[in-house]
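Cont'd.
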Amino acid sequence: MTPSPTPGTGHAAPDPTRRLVLAGILASYVSSFIPWSSSHAQARATAPVTAPDSFLNVSRLITGRATLDAMQAARLYAGLVAAVPLFSAQLTALAAFAASNASTADQLQASLDAARAPFAKLPGVIATAWYVGVAGSGAAAHCVTYETSLMNVVVADHLKPPSYAYGPYGSWSSNPLGTTLTAPLKATLKAA
Amino acid sequence: MSDHLSADIVVIGSGIVGSLAAHRLVSQGASVLILEAGPRVDRGHIVAKFRNSPRKNDFMSPYPPSAWAPHPVYQPVDNDYLVQAGPYPYKAEYIRMVGGTTWHWAAQAWRILPNDLRLKTLYGVGRDWPISYDDLEPFYYEAEVKMGVSGAPNTGSPRTRPFPMQPVAESFLEQRFRERLAPGGYEVVTNTTARNSRNYDGRPACCGNNNCMPICPIDAQYHGGLAADAAEQAGAKLIANAVVYRIEHDDRGRIAAVHYYDPDKVSHRVTGKTFILAANGIESPKLLLLSASHRYRKGLANSTDMVGRHLMDHPSNSLTFDAEEELWPGRGPMSPSSINALRDGAFRSEHAAFRIDISNSSQVLSVTQALIANGVYGAELEKRIRYHAARQCSLKNVLEILPDPDNRVVLSERKDAFGIPKPEVHYAMNDYVHRGMAAARDEYTRIAQLMGGTNLRYSPDGVYGNNQHITGTMSMGNDPKDSVVDAFGRTHDHENLYIASTGVMPTAATVNSTLTAVALALRSADHIHANA
Amino acid sequence: MKFRRRLGAVLIASFGFAMTVHAAEDALIKRGEYLAKAGDCIACHSAPQGKPFAGGLSLATPLGNIVSTNITPSKTNGIGNYTLEQFAAALRGGVRADGQLLYPAMPYTSYALVSDDDVKALYAYFMQGVAPVNVSPPQTALPFPFNVRVSMAAWNLLFLDSRPFTPDPSQSVEWNRGAYLVKGLAHCSTCHTPRNALMAEETSASLGGSVVGTWYAPNISSDPTSGIGPWSEADIVAYLRTGHVVGRAQAAGPMAEAVDNSFRHLDDRDLRAMAVYLQSTPAVHHAADRRPPYAWGGRKASVDEVRGEPLPEDANRMSGPQLYDAYCASCHQVHGEGAGQGIDGPGLPSLFHNTALGHTNTNNLVMVMLEGVHRQASAPDVLMPAFGRLLSDQQIATLGNYLLKEYGNPNASVTAEQVKILRAGGEASPLITIARASLIVAGLLLLAVLLLLMRRRKRS
């Protein structure tokens, strides 16, 4: 019978009294008190705050979906606030812009670029959050969703998100147009 | 200093090459100790890290380096570990952890062609190997059995025994490429891969997770982690988090010991009878150069200043296009088939040879990011994601750059956290490569035409990708003046120091290097055992 | 001329007769081979990578290891010198040719029902259809007092019913065939019936489920909640033939071996007969079972809760969803629904509506995580890898409890202690201690009686 795994032979990770590690622990502990810091781990431990209406309205515009999962919206909103500087302020401005211009998804970016709005990049940021599941960019980028990211939902009748088994061996040989993967991934809980 | 560790065979590096050599030797009764600079890793953790990654197209994101055994990181911020001296970047990715870099490969396990070993004689370019294909053939087979390799029957690499198993089932995309390209004279061939097409070696058959790179979640493909595990199960001792920083020789030039740091920078000395350096094609020459002594001022195994020289890779260019029918890449393995027609021929006197790789990776992420970058939102975005995810295809090549002594790895003046000099790469392309790349581009155009392709997007001219097939830096040869090791991988300068690495390959050939490096290492292990 | 013709005729006739005899012998051997598959002799009487029927398989029992014997027709190391009577006595009575008694790890209490005709066929197969192997496996050496085989005589007296199978005239031919197989050669009760303190089957709870070392052999009585009452005849036949039924169960561990070695070789009629019989057995009900074990759970995903969360430094503190994400979801999918079931085979099974997560006894859930599911060539794509080397006792307990709450029977649970015991091969039996203690007590009593008698003598 295989024994319960014991730590492998070799040297353990460095002595926890090493300055670097201690500094790291201290830093993340302190940053947990700052809701808009780029440290995100603590924000997830409890249920996220409900997303504000401005975010839901703008999200419906950008995704073209009348109903969005409330829990997913809340998580994405919390992730964006943590990862994108001045997100709340930019969101308010974008929501106002869209309302006053009666924007549609098709002309949103063009009109923002034409108006040289300082928040012109925000729709792309929000779209990335919903479709790719990532909040923020560069070193601050943080994965909020994967399986329920809309890009994966949109193709779920034919593809699994990479790393999930397509099916038993050989099942990928069939013509995708003749076969459908069983029920597409549904986001959790109730609609917004 | 502490400890007195010793073994018959001391292996530096626990990647697929070092671990399989270790496994062979320990199974034959030797005591074997493997020293690995980096930590142990667990497959489940890597899978979780991948799914939690904000950069899923960055295959290194599930493998963050440790402070004591850094490896190159390019995203989101370059960690400047592999110092680029230019003129051309050599941005290789490799993993310093137990099991090494094949944790995140696509399991391409080709043999090279007999002509690949005789470039100089046949085509007047490059150099000849000191061995023939026939010398290597039995060890190729041994490696294929150990790794579980299958492939198409006619790849140009002769074999005395059939593959251990059938080729992996084709995806629909592959079938359509094969059918549509045949009238154009192209034979689309299922790749030779270390991927299970049935339960093998206690591991399941491929289930189409389409995630070979960066991690196969179910171990349907072979990798160095499995090799390291097999070596340990067979009785080899493996010490992780052991950064070898110096190889020590005695006054006769024989290797007496190696010294390593643990993560607290405490030094340990390990003695042995025979030493195998298997720390990849960059870290191995780095260590040899680091071990310079009063007697060997240019570093170990380097009396003729060949260590680190002749650095090669397989540079790539590519074409992305939309096929005219719905193919839905992303169903099955990521890299399942190739066109082999241009791997060999008289043209090699004039331009580089190459293998063309047809991708089956899911295009969903890249398609989505491109559309969002273009300001496409709403229902239109979703419609176009589906449209392009179903049709976007990608071709790339694996092209043979020739050995050039000025392409090399040296020690940088910059140092890592332990004060060890970082590796520095000097690298340049030449017209032999550029002409080969141009020929490849023409092939891609014809292939796209046969697929009814539109929206053709070529990679920028002169900008080539790196495939981390790190070859040439400790070339094998009969003449010590232009080589570091002999035909058995034994260094010319030190009779008990062997090198097991892609780095001993004197030319790169046109296929991924792993199987060849493993076969060479098994041959070296066979030699060590015979001369024990 | 006449003589020659007569001689010719006699020769042809005797040749023909010999051929007929040969054909009859061949048919008998073939039938014996079939019956040996039904009895699954090979499973115990062959060691892994060993020659068929040459013995050497060490069976871990609570009393110690019992090593199976060489039953090839080797005259020096096997049963090559056995007469038909001696063969029958071993098979049905648990007596070796040299008079020694067999341990009931050899299920002779079930094989006692095998008919004379079938014994003949089996004998023909073992004597002529099996290659002799001239190597003896190691001897069985149980701790005292069980190394004294004579103790088996008392056990047999209590528990061996050596009456042959008698058909029940009120039942159909098919039912009787099923009863004959299930109770006899297929020896289902050996695993599926609980045992009493003296390790004999509790006939009052026949087929009511039992732990065999580590794996749990489920309740296969006809009970509608605890047993397989709601299974159709087709379900039972499919399970025996293939080892899986979507929406119910899949075989692992010893049952997977039984399917691979035995049941998949039986013909359709026999499997249907067994199903008919199994649907009629007395219902054995356990109060703790609130639903059939395949009826728990549904699609559910918790991965969003942990997406983007870094893993804890101490792997033993990974949460259920984190463990599921890292080790299980790749195959069993985000909602536990599996993939591709029923296309060409079992596919990647669903976790809900699966007895593996529905039984009150959770040994099988733990065992399948420790050892995986392995089948032979008949099910070439079935392989669940073992996780015993990747996961600690604590991780398996955390993951097991998460799976039960998320996809299975939330009233069942797994403990780290249970995992530890199962890794070690199961609970140790108190029987050795009891037996030795009883002997000591008996000895002391005897001594006391003797002393009393001696005192009396002295007085008188």
